[in-house]
Amino acid sequence: RPVIAIVGRPNVGKSTIFNRIIGDRLAIVEDKPGITRDRIYGTGEWNGRSFSVIDTGGIEIDGEDGLLRSVRMQAELAIEEADVIIFMVDAKAGVTNADEEVAQMLFRSQKPIVLGVNKVDNLGRMDDIYEFYSLGFGDPVPMSGAHGQGVGDLLDAAVNKLPVKEEQEYNDDIIKVALIGRPNVGKSSLVNAILGEERVIVSNIAGTTRDAIDTPFEKDGQKYVLIDTAGMRKRGKVYETTEKYSVMRAMQAIERADVVLVVINGEEGIIEQDKHIAGYAHENGKAAIFVVNKWDVVEKHDKTMQHFTNTIRDHFLFMTYAPVVFLSALTKHRLTKLFPVIDRVAEQHALRVPTNVLNDIISDAVAINPPPTDKGRRLRINYVTQVAVKPPTLLIFVNDPELMHFSYERYLENKIRAAFEFEGTPLRLFTRKKS
Ligand code: GDP
Predict the structure, then answer these.
(1) What pLDDT, on a 0 to 100 scale, did the predictor assign at position 33?
(2) Which of 33, 84, 234, 427 is deepest in the core (most CB within 10 A)?
(3) Residue 31's pLDDT is what?
């Protein structure tokens, strides 16, 4: 997916554009607790093109020269990551030194740039925007975020400059596996261990996207593609200083995957960043497996695995469906445990259950534990049907969706899982009105 980045000084209106692009989408995402959401990165669609968008406004450095350093890093990040850059300036402030500095960096990069001038009160008058021609990016696009005017024109201009490039597409029967995790958890080592296995036949590397290296391979008759972000990520110097953005490539890999291997360093345990990345896999409806690596150096007794699993469950409350595999990429100990689990969760991720069985289970669940009443009214479930796979998505038709409470939905999900398991995959339940 192509990437649009938005750069500019604080308060010029970057988040206005950003929210305009991703706004609707955030509303569609499941509303469940325990999910972190990254508001600096999102996906959007405009004029029929879909793309990712980065608001570089998350980079802010305090201190005397903070502003200049911040915008420099924003520009650097945008140049490294984006196909098109939206450069925002402020009509009220005019051209500032920081603007000029960013303009020079962007100019040298030769990336397609769209210059947006925000806070223009009268879009028909050219007076306010003349001076911005001096930045050298051609016609500035005037806008007024406050009045919601001109934003569409700006997005038109940006989307027009997106490259016409085909995403690497794979057949549906190929299992796409992304390896994600913090630096040094052993992702590269695991990739090498997997691809170095005797029964693995690696075909020619199909393509290298900007975000990841794809390696197609075959093992015991099943085709896979490994989407590896590790090697690429190590190049970017911006990432070392801004941890928030270091997850961006991981996110892009997740979006293209079926099964996400969340690699955790068994020696160190779980930290916040692990949760963040895993949460993104969950939100995007991907199957997930926790891979606890470096198991060779962990001191073990008979309950160590159970304890570690409990810790993972405590930290990832919303992902209790994801199995845990312990291994060592270095010694290859227990490596053979991994692929059967990948195959299993991939299958469950694409599982379609029969409507009649599904409805029998829901009827039983309702009989055992009827929905609670709300202001004297009771939720009535008419029927349930599966409308999609990857992830399995169920529509629950009810008398009034407002009466469906989170705890009851959770109860139904547990009953469904008790019957079909759906190991390793999130489930999406949507409630619709139908009396
Ligand atoms: P990445 O940044 O996630 O790709 O991590 P690397 O694969 O580069 O590994 C980081 C370090 O951990 C290297 O020094 C590896 O040799 C080491 N390492 C990786 N896997 C294991 C393992 O299973 N056991 C041990 N003891 N060390 C490992």
Answers:
(1) 37
(2) 84
(3) 35
Domain 175-349 in the same topology as domain 3-160:
yes
Provide the pLDDT confidence category of residue 26 given band limits of 50, 70 and 90.
very low
189 close to 329: Cβ distance less than 8 angstroms: yes
Q: Whose CA is nearest to atom 26 of ligand 1?
A: 294
The CATH number of 355-433 is 3.30.300.20
For residue 325, how far is its CA from the centre of ligand 1 (angstroms)?
16
The alpha carbon dihedral of 398, 400, 401, 405 has a sign of negative
Q: How far apart are CA 336 and CA 342, in angstroms?
A: 11
CATH T-level assignment (fold) for domain 175-349? Rossmann fold (3.40.50)
- Give me the half-sphere count of Cα atoms (radius 13 Å) on the Cβ side of residue 262: 27
The complex's ipTM works out to 0.93
- Among protein residues, the one with the nearest Cα to ligand 1's atom 20 is 186
Alpha-carbon separation of residue 73 from 62, 67, 216, 250 (angstroms): 13, 10, 35, 20
CB of 266 closer than 6 angstroms to any ligand 1 atom = no
Ligand 1 center to residue 188 CA distance, Å? 7
The full DSSP string for 252-288 is HHHHH-SEEEEEEETTT---HHHHHHHHHHHHTT-EE
Distances (CA, A) of 159 to 74, 82, 147: 20, 12, 22
